[in-house]
Write a structure and sequence with these properties.
Blueprint (H helix, E strand, L loop, with lengths): L1 E9 L2 H4 L3 E2 L7 E3 L3 E18 L3 E7 L4 E7 L13 H17 L5 E11 L2 E11 L5 H15 L13
Parallel strand pairs: 1-4, 6-8
Antiparallel strand pairs: 2-3, 3-4, 4-5, 4-7, 5-6, 7-8
């Protein structure tokens, strides 16, 4: 089994939504039974946004092939997970997350990267990075990169050879 663990794999939503949890590798998902993935990158339009201040921001990214559910945690200052870390570092992480939350608005084109996980049986992206895309060609370039990488690096994924000439 090939591993792309700790690599932000560029995926279209229909490939992302086909990921399944790995029975033998916790916190990792399997793509088409051949690749272990832990991180992903997508680009699309924000189509849903649910904000719980100081807790989390749930949102979806629609790239035209489907909608990827994402969660951005905003509870760094109160979470026991961060209690063992240096307080200035935690404050910085919290500030960055809060700034990402202000960027995520419905209708905005955004590039989102993060950790792939499963919540209540559904795959989701736990956000680590958000960049608002201002280039009108960014989404089509992302699509082309996803198709090229799927064919050349990820073992085909869901790409139909007849569709891309």
């Amino acid at each position: 089994m090939q591993s792309l663990h700790d690599t932000h794999v560029k995926l279209l939503a229909f490939d992302f939504l086909s990921l399944t949890p790995s029975p033998s590798h916790p916190n990792t998902v399997i793509h088409k039974g051949t690749h272990l993935l832990s991180r992903a990158e997508t680009l699309g339009i924000i189509t849903f946004r649910e904000h719980k201040p100081d807790r989390f921001l749930k949102f979806t990214v629609d790239d035209g092939t489907g909608c990827i559910p994402c969660v951005l945690w905003l509870n760094q200052l109160t979470s026991p997970y961060f209690s063992r870390r240096c307080p200035p570092d935690v404050r910085l992480i919290a500030e960055v997350a809060k700034s990402f939350a202000t960027l995520i608005q419905i209708g905005v084109s955004a590039r989102v990267r993060g950790k792939v996980g499963v919540y209540r049986g559904n795959v989701q992206l736990t956000v680590s990075d958000v960049v608002v895309e201002r280039d009108p060609n960014a989404e089509i370039v992302h699509w082309l990169e996803c198709v090229r990488l799927a064919k050349k690096c990820y073992g085909g994924l869901n790409v139909n050879e007849n569709d891309s000439g």
